[in-house]
Amino acid sequence: MIFALRPSERSGRPTLWIPLVRRIREPFKDQWALPGGPLTHSESLQDAASRNLRETSGLAPKYLEQLYAFGGLHRSPTQRVVSIVYWALVQPTEAALADESENVRWFRADRLGELAFDHNAIIDYALGRLRNKMAYGSIAYHLLGEYFTLAQVREVYEAVLDRELDPANFRRQIKATPDIEDTGEYLQGGKHRPPRLYRFTGRPGLDPDNRSTP
Amino acid sequence: MIFALRPSERSGRPTLWIPLVRRIREPFKDQWALPGGPLTHSESLQDAASRNLRETSGLAPKYLEQLYAFGGLHRSPTQRVVSIVYWALVQPTEAALADESENVRWFRADRLGELAFDHNAIIDYALGRLRNKMAYGSIAYHLLGEYFTLAQVREVYEAVLDRELDPANFRRQIKATPDIEDTGEYLQGGKHRPPRLYRFTGRPGLDPDNRSTP
DNA sequence: TTAGTTATAGTCAAGTTGACTAGAACTAAT
DNA sequence: ATTAGTTCTAGTCAACTTGACTATAACTAA
């Protein structure tokens, strides 16, 4: 499952969006579902997740991490299915390039209808994990481009945590964390005082099992 | 994989122990490995983990949570194996009852030899998760019995985090957390001033997918 | 009775957080 | 050219938390 930020239609502020695919066969034919597919014998879990993502949505996100293995008995009405779910964060530029078609569409994460299988529950869990990682780890930057202003970082936090944060206090805290580098440049073209541009220099904490196939 | 506290042979202080099983067939015949087994068609992942645990070690831990799905291509030299690993915490009373035999033995978590498959890596990952959950969540209590002293809680933290903590400051912090209840009783029989007994009243945060089979 | 040990409460300085004030730097309107 | 509007940015201050430390309480063993 994929998270990206897109501007809300109304306010223009960034909000969380998720691409879903329309099911073309039973069960749950014509309902929306998370992209996914089978695991082949010649690829690791991580590789399979990458491949399925690319094939369904055309995306190749930099941040990809295992979410959880769902294996309840009645997840699918027709057969026993175990889904090892991965979640990805993509940058706005990438998300803009993503395929959208009759059978692939982006939805606001907080305005989903009823999805196929247990996919609503999976998304809820992923949202919880995203909020948790946002509150602790340094994950927000993977939803932004290479250069960003601290106000943009704040907007990511506000979108994910769904509450407003004091700009001055937020600055102070972010600047106290490591891995944030002042580029010395400024974002020009805004309507107001031009903000400084920063860069994230940290690494995206690795999964224990994500070496690619040689 | 299972964690339990047992008194260290030398110091008598509690340390982390793990039960392992000896492999009776190839590959890795006669080497020590994590207990485990296949997933059948009629049980959830959680149920399968419980069953495998019971069958190999006789344990039925109260705390059981999914750790990670390991699915690298070369985990087993003979075939492709995906392991959905669970981790459990057992109380000392339970751990004492656990079967120990020619083919099941407990080891100190910090003194393991070379295990079968990638099981050393799995244990390292589980230890990291345990330390992390210990530092934030309220997980230490699942390694203790129903009633415990605050010094015992501190010993759990010290064993897992592997550093000494100031008794007075630790008390203050633990008492400030919710879900810790003073029973009004005292632990008698010690050599010194008898400490108060406390009880944990919180719930063990549920996995998203752990409903038992009906 | 005393020494030894752990249990428990409290103090204090340093650091962090949240609410708030204020000036800096730009654009758009007059 | 000036002013109003907006965001950016730094700083202040009280409340709270943390880590180091002191002191007393309550027991056992000598």
Summarize the structure.
The first copy, chain A, is of the alpha+beta class and 214 residues long. Chain A has five helices and nine strands. Chain A is globular, with a radius of gyration of 18 Å.
Describe the 3D structure.
The structure is a homodimer of 214-residue chains. The two termini of chain A are 25 Å apart. By secondary structure, the first copy, chain A, is an alpha+beta fold. In chain A, 27% of the residues lie in helices and 24% in strands. The first copy, chain A, is built from five helices and nine strands, in the order βββαββαβαβααββ. Chain A is globular and about 60 Å long. In chain A, the strands form two sheets. In chain A, strands 1, 2, 3, 4, 5 and 6 form a six-stranded mixed beta sheet that branches. In chain A, strands 7-9-8 form a three-stranded antiparallel beta sheet. The A-B interface holds A 39, 41-45, 66, 68-73, 80, 82, 84, 121-122, 124-125, 207-209, 211, 213 and B 39, 41-45, 66, 68-73, 80, 82, 84, 121-122, 124-125, 207-209, 211, 213. Chain A binds a DNA duplex (30 and 30 nucleotides) through helix 5.
**Basic shape of chain A:** globular
Q: Summarize the helix and strand pattern of chain A as letters.
A: EEEHEEHEHEHHEE
The end-to-end span of chain A amounts to 25 Å
Q: Strand-residue fraction of chain A?
A: 15-25%
Number of helices of chain A: 5
What composes the largest sheet of chain A? 6 strands, mixed
Q: Oligomeric form of this entry?
A: homodimer
Q: What structural category arises from helix and sheet content of chain A?
A: alpha+beta
Helix content of chain A: 25-40%
Cα gyration radius of chain A (Å)? 18 Å
